[in-house]
Design brief:
This protein is an alpha+beta fold. The chain has 3 domains: 290 residues, no CATH class; 116 residues; 101 residues, no CATH class. Helix content is 47%, strand content 10%. It has 22 helices and 14 strands. The strands form 4 sheets. The protein has a 5-stranded mixed sheet, with helices on both faces. Strand 4 and strand 5 form a beta hairpin. The termini are far apart.
Length: 627
Amino acid sequence: MTTADPTRKEGRSGPHDGGAIRLPASTSTSPTDRTQAPKTVTSPDTSQAPAASAPPAHGNPHAPHRRLWAYAHRHPVIAATVVSAVTHVIWFLFFANSGGDLAAQDAWAEFVGRHPASAYNLAWYGGMHPVSYSVVSPYLMAVIGVRPTMMLAGTVSAALTALILCRVKAVRNPLACALAADFAFLCNALSGRVTFGLGTMFALGAVAAVFCWPHKWRYHRWGKAWVAAPLAALATASSPVAGLYLGVVAAALFLNKRRPGAYALGLAPVAVVAASSLLFPFSGTQPMSVGTASLPFLYGVLVFFLVPKEWKTVRVGAAVYAVGVLLTWAVDSQIGSNISRFAMLFAGVILMAALPYTAPRTPTWWIVLIAFAGLNFWIGFKGVDDIVRTAPTASWTRELAPLVAKLQDAGAEKGRVEVVPASSHREASALPQYVNLARGWTRQADMKRNPLFYDGTLNATSYRAWLDRWAVHYVVLPTGAPDASGAVKEAKLVAGGLPYLKTLWSDANWQLFKVEDPTPMADPPGTVERAEDGELTLDVKSPGWVLIRIPYSRWLAVVDEKGDSLPAPKKADGSDEFRNIHGCLRKAEKTMEGDEWTQLLAPKAGVYRLASPYQLPPGTGCPEELQ
């Protein structure tokens, strides 16, 4: 026999209030009794008085909160979505600065906005393919904006996570788990990882298609695959890191002999990575120290041991992830520290889901609780630290115009400009529309192409060689803290004075140096007239081969004034000889530093323009007979 919970008596609010007595519900009530309403007797003298059961005029101050909390428990998906939407709006209004990862995403969105049909960005590291960063996100961010993309991705990801949690029967506290996910997605936004957030949104959609497939459609497995596989492909096309995490889930399903779901989630990311690597090759290394690897490895192990043993897919996934962290630390790759994001987003959700399976205040319960609190401290501290560390100085917003004017007056568009990287990396998005930068903001590319800033070999002599290698004509030293990983020593070197750097101009925010006797971007008989982020213009004095210090890409083409690709050399009618009317390009022999520059075969003197329109076949390559 059960009774209803006690309620407070009317008109009493003291500490000794008793509960109003309620009769227990009879277990043998007849249908007639259940349908008849109880009769009440009201005397004429008391009919106008307030009923004893009516609420007080001021109401119960806790009732709205209780009703709201009860509604959230009944509708965790709606609750998690609303909370995530509100927190992302707060992020947008108060914390979404223009530094850190947002600077990189601003730069790519702006480049794609200016040159939507360009396959090669000449403003960073000599040249980079937008697809090497992301196939989808630069174009979406260019259309709806970088920060709205983050708000959309974070909110939808929270909704999908809550949906998955509600559909998995083993999860006993979906609301608490969904709120833990909300906090993780907020921390991801604080760190400015928009591209990764977009990929995560599609990845969660693919996972939801596998785990939340309607029961009445259980025999339509191909339908599930047709939904999950395209979403998995979109996730990888948005962020290869998100595709990697789908690989972890696919591996866990495969090892648990859940092959259809594994194939649906795992094959599409492999195809996307293979195609993008073939068409838009990129190589680089993302660093990962022992300290960086320790926490994600630890949480992979904790999830494996702390969740119920019946959660086989989760435990196998945690084991695969922990092994992956060790391999990523041991073997240099483009993944590096990015692998930690999986634990940062979802380890807390899994630990919270495991908490109801432990007896309260037992050692296991305390371990799960402490692990959950520790993870949230980790990701919260990381998010706040990223905000503080990458906040750009006011000069990047208010005092940039004088620097740009001086660079334009000096003719900096004929070569590259090295801006000593700021802690905010704001230079990566603020200057590419005016000048081509020797560096940018992709750690993998920076470590691959500019290792001297990381391997301890930077000095006055090696710095001069590096300036010549990349045809740097001007160096800018901004005020404020430099990038802690790859610019502290460079900033000290430049600020201390170098014989080959002559001060051209300075104010309270900037120091502009001219490189003495700089190396040109193009060797004779060619001269660079203007180097823009999407196009390079050369004046060639005589026919012949011209070496251009741009990393070779098969997408580079000789174009006309409108940017349209000109025809490649063709065989003349009735002859085996090729007619080279407009010029063609080839990859130069590799230098001692490992650079593979671009060479133009100019058939005559004149002006030549190089760009990279998307087309098949790509570029304007020289046939073997002309090489």
